[in-house]
Each structure stands twice: as structure tokens, then as C-alpha cells.
Amino acid sequence: MTIAVSVRDLRKSYGEFEAVKGIDFEIAAGQVFGLLGPNGAGKTTTVEILEGYRNRSSGDISVLGEDPQHAGQAWRSRIGVVLQSSSLYPNLTPRESLRVFAGYYATPRPVDEVIEIVGLGEKADARVRTLSGGQKRRLDLGLALIGNPDMIFLDEPTTGFDPGARRAAWETIRNLRSLGTTILLTTHYLDEAEQLADQVAVLRGGVIVRAGSPAELTGGASETEIRYRQAGEEILERTTDPTRRLHELTSAALERGEVLDGIEVRRPTLEEVYLELTGSETGAE
Amino acid sequence: MKLFVHQLRTEQLLFWRNREAAFFTFFLPVIFFLIFGAIYGDTDISSEHIKGSYFLEAGMIGYGVASTCFAGLGITLVVRRELGILKRVRTTPLTPLTYLSAVLGSIFIVFLFEAALIILIGRVLFGVPFPTQAFSVLVVLLIGAVCFAAMGLGISGFVRSAEGSSAAINAVYLPMAIISGTFFTPKGYPTFLKVIADALPLTHYTKVTRDVMVHGVHVWSDWKQLLVVLAWGIAGMLAALKLFRWQPREA
């Protein structure tokens, strides 16, 4: 397994304030890595250091085999970046914008192919300022892909999307993954990380409070919820041994010739684990 | 070099596509030349010993350098910075040097085209002969473009928001352009205004332009004026080196 990104004891201070307080993680080539956390947790700082845009205070990092702080133009041609806010020329069309940025790379993807990937076919020749927020964001993604990068950084790529647009964006990201692109994704949407990421790290106050696959993260919480109705009454049980407990419940019900109305068995979602980990429902940090 | 040409073409596309900016920076000096030329083009300006149209032609080139290279460039850079475009450009293989060279090269092309148009209008509509010192004129245009662009780079660092950029930069350059002897000769100014005008780079630049274009002197005979323009250019460059940023202010 090739390592695309490795981060060792990364720290970043702005004056007195330490935004990132010594974090470690690795991203295997071809994987989607989700960096989760509330606003102000240090996600964007971390990503911008990996993009070579900000200098770190200390620590060792390697992205595609190089230190981003000292990497040159050849390295830049191998990465693609979607910034946290849309950054586009309002008076160009998506096709023109893609042509402009294609010119910066030695071996760009064909413009028409990128338009196809991000689903902007109908709007390819409309001025950017007439596009919706979601369409602009897809163009941002297109501009990150035009150089045919090995690795892309997506900083909150679907913030402000309606559910349909979010699903479309997820599909695009899955397509990229299937093409072998390594992806670092920051998000504060848990379902997004659950849907897309192979590995997740939860950042809080500049430290990683939990890391692993989405399944490992949710699997770490030991209790399963069983919910059903009996004699018109809603019952909720928590158990560490759901197989046995379910068997007991259903056998008893069958013996009595009853039906367990609305029976539901669920594991805690990543969202619940996350809220527990970040210790806040407001997301304030 | 290929990247430079690519970016230069991009900059030209961006400039002409932005109609409002193209109007204010490129066409306004031309329109002012037509209007003021019609008003006092035939009148002699006794203190300058030339006809109004001759005076105005050089003045509008001075006004043009301020509107394209200083104000136009400054506003463009602030807007691009705040839109995150400068930041995005930094994530591509395009080097900052190539990018900025293309931005400056493009604005120089715009200014050159504008000066040519003003000289042509002067010849056709107001009977101002073409300048005799063609080489000196070109040098004057180049020095003006470089120095005022440096000031444009410098001022972009002082302006914080994209919304306020036009207002803030226009508030600096419009009064400067008007008192710097572009429309009216500073020779009749009250003392306090004369003192201000004498400190401004555009006053000196307009004088050099006028001397070269109207009186046919060689560009270096006005070296004292050029030094003032150059000093302002250097001040702009120093401000740019200290204040120029690629990332948006609020980030």
C-alpha cells in the first residue's frame, strides 16, 4: 500500500493561539480520507498546510512524496484544490474557465470530459455569475480536476447544497475515487463522511479525538438500540448483546402469538458518535 | 513563456469581458477627451502657450495611465483577492512571477491601445499633429505604465473589501487625476492646491507627457519630473512588497 499523505506531530500556531496541536495521520493512495470537526477545529488550517499554502510551525509532513512547503511547480501540477469558498471569474463561462486553468498544466484532462464529470453540460456556456451556488461549487471541483491530479483536497465541498445536489456531488467524488484519485475531504456533515470516506479523523480543538473507518468509529460504541411497541406502549432497550436479546423478545412474542409492532434495531450513527466525541451540539469551539 | 502568453490572452479576455471596468478605465478618458475637446479644444491656453486640444491630448494620456494602470489594476487585484481567485491561482503550477508579469503586461497593452486611440482622435477630430518623438513617447508610456501599476499594486494592499474597492480607489485617483493638470493647467492654481499638485506623481507625469508630445522634447530632458514619478513608483512597490496578499482579507 502506497502512502499518499503522512502527517507526524503537525503543529500550527497563530501568535499565542495554537490552532493545530500535534496531529498524526496517514492517507493511503487511492483512498478517501475525511477530516471531520466543528468550525474552528483546525480542519482548514491542516488542509492548507498540506496544500503548501500555509507554513507549519513544526512537525513532519509528506504529500505525494514531497514536503509541500518546499515543493515546486511539478508537485503543484499533481494536486487539485477546492477551497472552502467558491473562487471563480464571474464573467467567464465554465468552459472558458476550464480552458484557462487547463493551460496551466502539462497534461490536462479534456475540457469536455471535465464538464461531463461535474455535470455542467447545460450551463457550460453560461456566464459563471448566472450559475447557482451548487453549480459554482461543481465548477470549483471541475477546476480542481482539470490538471488530472493524483490527489485532490476538498474543503467542505458541499456546504450549502440542497440534498439532490449533495447526492450528485457524492457521485462525482465516488467516480474520482474509482479513477484512483486520492481525496482529502473536510466536512462537518457526518453522513457525508459516512458515505464517502474510507478513513475518518475527528478533529476537535486542534487534536484528533478519534480516527478509523466509519464502521470502526460507530462500532466502538458498544450498545445497540432495540425499539418496538407492546400493548400500545413504545419501548426502547439498549443492549450489548443484540443477538440474544432479539431472540428472547421474538420467541416470547411468538409464544404469546403477538406481533412486535414497529420493531427496529439500530446501531448508533456516526453522527451520534461524533456529537459525543466533540461534546457539543452547537458545533461551537 | 508559453504560460506567460496563455495568461496574457486570459487577462485580455478578462479585461474586455468586464464591461463596467473596461468602460471606466479604458473608455472614460477617451470620452472626456471628446467632451472637453469639444468645449475648449479650439481655445488657446495662454499660460501653456498651446491650444486646448493639444493640452488635453497629453492630459488624457496622463488621466489614462491613472485610470488603467493605477485604479483599474488596483481594483481588479482587490476583487480577485477577495473572490479567492488569487489564492486559487497559487495552488496551480502557474508561478506568481509569471502571473503578475502577465497581469502587468496585459494592462500595458490596454494602456498602449488607449494612448494610440487618444492620439488618433486628436489627429482626426482636433487636428493635433502626431508626436514627432515616437521613441520618447513610447518610453514615456512605458515608464508611466510601470510606475502607476506599481502604485496600483501597492494600494490594493490597503483596500480590505471587494465591495469597497471601487469607491476607495476612485476616491484616491479621481481627485488626483483632476488636480494633476490633466484637464486644467496647474499654473493658475491657488497656492495650497499647487503645493498638493506638486507632490503628486501624475502632475509630473502629465508634464513630461506634454513636453514630449506637444513640444517634441527628448524624454530625458525632463529627468527631474521622471525622478518624482519613479520615486512614487518605488514607494508603491515597497508598499506592495509589504502589503500584497494572495488570500482574502476575511480568511
TrEMBL record, chain A:
Q: Which Pfam families match?
A: ABC_tran
**SMART domains referenced in this protein's UniProt entry, alphabetically:** AAA
Q: Which residues form a coiled coil?
A: none
The places in or outside the cell where this protein is found are:
Cell membrane
Provide one Gene Ontology cellular component.
plasma membrane
Q: Provide the primary localization.
A: membrane
- A molecular function (GO) term: ATP binding
Q: Does the keyword Transcription regulation apply?
A: no
Indicate yes or no for the key word Translocase. yes
Q: Where are the transmembrane segments?
A: none
What is the name of this protein? Unannotated protein
TrEMBL record, chain B:
**Does this UniProt record's set of keywords contain Iron-sulfur?**
no
Where is the protein found, in the record's own terms? Membrane
Any transmembrane segments, and where?
Answer: 21-40, 60-79, 99-122, 134-155, 167-185, 226-244
Q: Where is the ABC transmembrane type-2 domain?
A: 20-247
Q: Which GO terms describe its molecular function?
A: ABC-type transporter activity
Annotated membrane topology = Multi-pass membrane protein
* Keyword check for Transmembrane: yes
Cellular component annotations (GO), alphabetically ordered: ATP-binding cassette (ABC) transporter complex
Any matching Pfam family: ABC2_membrane
Report keywords, A-Z: Membrane, Transmembrane, Transmembrane helix
Could you tell me which InterPro entries the record lists for this protein?
ABC-2_transporter, ABC2_TM, ABC2_TM_bact-type, ABC_2_transport
Instruction: Indicate what this protein is called per its UniProt record.
Output: Unannotated protein
Protein's organism: freshwater metagenome
